[in-house]
Amino acid sequence: MYVADNNDNYSYLDKISCDTEVHLQIITATQPIRLKTRLIGVDPNMSVIVAMGTGSDWLSAKQYIREGQKVIVRLMSTKNPDANLIAFQSNIQKLMSIAGRWILLDYPQQVQLAPLRQDQRLPIHINAKLVNPETKKICSTGYLSDLSIHGCAFIGEPIQKASLSQHYILQVSIAGEVKSNIIMIKNRKKAGPKTRTMQYGGTLQGDEVQIKQFVEPLLIDCLFH
Asked: Is the whole model's pTM more than 0.90, yes or no?
């Protein structure tokens, strides 16, 4: 569940650690531009400060990094026990290059926050496919309806001869990049009373680092949509 316009959300933002990874999405008339950077700090009720990157993706986006430009900011703080996803919409307030190459963003008027716990599923809607790991053939096309650090729910076409504990490759596309991870089917049921579509509940397989690399971009992307 996402929580917006809660004083605790602003308190959490104000205290978030410096150097937290920041996903910056620049809003354009055509394709959104996505950049990665880090948090420099938060001046409560005034501004949020992030570092300006130097990579090729930043150079390509140079014309859009200007005062007044609308952006969506997403952060994931996983260092604390109460790990959360946080996102907000803002405008570039000012570009600075005195103590470092920084971008000052307007302090947000609305903040979305989603608790990130192993046992808590977050509602999402991301197009996805289940692929046979041996034949590489698509078994079902559909979408993810919820996601947590270790599990997900996939809604899609019925899989022929599907059985519990069977493994599939879960394949999704985020910002033009295809990501995949093995899942094991734990349960299945009809997605609705008047549909052939099935809901498959599964657990993500792999080591903690691998699962984190798959899940985090999906959870971050689902905020502020």
From this structure: no
The whole domain housing 174 covers 122-222
Domain boundary among 115, 143, 158: 115
Both 140 and 202 in one domain: the answer is: yes
Q: Give me the residue label for tokens 């903690």.
A: 208
Looking at the 3D structure of the chain, how many domains does it have? 2
Spatial distance between the Cα atoms of 222 and 125, rounded to a whole number of angstroms = 8
CA separation for the pair 123, 140 (Å, rounded): 20
82 plus 166 within the same structural domain: no
pLDDT tens per residue, range 44-81: 999 999 999 988 999 999 999 999 999 999 987 666 55
Q: Residue 223: is its pLDDT beyond 90?
A: no
Question: Over the Cα atoms of the chain, what is R_g?
Answer: 19
> Mean pLDDT score of the chain, rounded to an integer?
87
Q: Which region, left, alpha or beta, applies to residue 80 given φ > 0 means left and ψ of -120 to 50 means alpha?
A: beta
CA–CA dist 177, 179 (Å, integer):
6
Dist. CA 97–CA 195, nearest whole Å: 58
